[in-house]
Task: structure prediction
Amino acid sequence: MTGVCDQSTPEAIPPSDRGAAVDPEAWIDRHGDVLYRFALTRLGQVDAAEDVVQEALLGAWQARDRFAGAASERTWLIGILRNKIVDRIRQNVRSETIDGPSTDSVGAFRDGLWIEAQQDWSASPDGALQSREFRSALDGCMQALPSPYRETFCLLEIDHYDSAAVCDILSVTRTNLWTLLHRAKLQLRDCLNHKWFSGRGRP
Result:
């Protein structure tokens, strides 16, 4: 099984099959692994990922008459799953306390601005998935992130929600949002330095 940050969607339904009759019995065989990895990336817990996939499939079944075939079956299912994931994150943040800005090891912060320039580093899966080994290392590092950091990173850097939407989903201010993203990137960078770059002639 590939790493959870693998965003590829192999075996997508070809254009000629778009608009074909919805076949819920085939959804798990066709798309189950991709849907599960998609959810696990964003939620970080096996049980939670399995739950939202089941919720998404149930929601898709209930909405099957509205599937017009304008997009592939997989794209339609992922769209439903994405909404279920956001709902789950909203539920989670109600019981979580997210730390505000501080002047600890993540960098000095004052009046909504970083005093120290943030290091120009990105672990976005859009650009850096070089090999199976790298994906495995990134998978482990994503799993190790505290949930607010992982959720922030995924919503902003993988799913490309705008910052206002993410603030609303996570119930944080813009200042806290950028603090969370900064800390997520620092932890991912440090983890990848340890798991991947060290010993390969890279800093």
In short: The chain is about 60% helix and 0% strand. The longest strand covers residues 109-110.
